[in-house]
Amino acid sequence: MFSSIGWGEVLVLIVVGIIVVGPERLPRLITDLKALLLAARTAIANARQELDQDFGEDFEEFRKPLSQLNSVRQMGARGFITKTLLDDDDSFLTDLESSAKDVTGAVRGTSAQISGRAPKNPPRPSEVPTAQESEAPAAQEEERVELPQQDEVGQSRDWGDAGNYDDTM
């Protein structure tokens, strides 16, 4: 009932009780509070028992579907699909996951080779390009085109009379 109250908070309540109520009346107040809590607990238990006796059969009709709904909520999407569509046979989904991981690994390895970086996972021997395939990119790299702007890199330009430039709009 008081699971959220720690020992430090109980100590603070006792100190405040001693200061406000006084040490003479504090034991009597504690016993009265204890009796009040016990009476409330028994009244709640009696009400629950009477409801179970009067409407117990009606509640049973609702408890089963609600418990099934609760189990579906806890199951998650993957478990629900596995249970309803695949009759609890999970092998299809694990095969699908492993093939998806193989494809993504192959794509990452190929993209790393194209960009010039080493892949995190080295490619399998069946994925390594042959000698003829690896010569084709080398031939493309030899045919570089020099642009005229490359000669001007690092040189300053003469902008003429920079003092006449008006930067207002």
Tell me about this structure:
The mean pLDDT is 73. This protein has helices at 7-20, 26-85, 91-115, 131-142. It contains four helices and no strands. With 169 residues, it is mainly α. The radius of gyration is 39 Å and the shape is flat. Among the domains are: 27-76; 90-120.
Question: What is the helix content?
Answer: 55-70%
Topology as a string of helices (H) and strands (E): HHHH
Secondary structural class? mainly alpha
Q: From the alpha carbons, calculate the radius of gyration and give it in angstroms.
A: 39 Å
| Overall morphology | flat
Output the number of helix runs.
4
Largest sheet: none
Mean model confidence by pLDDT: 73
From the N-terminal CA to the C-terminal CA, the straight-line distance is: 73 Å
Poorly predicted spans: none
- Care to count the β-strands? 0
Beta-strand proportion: under 5%
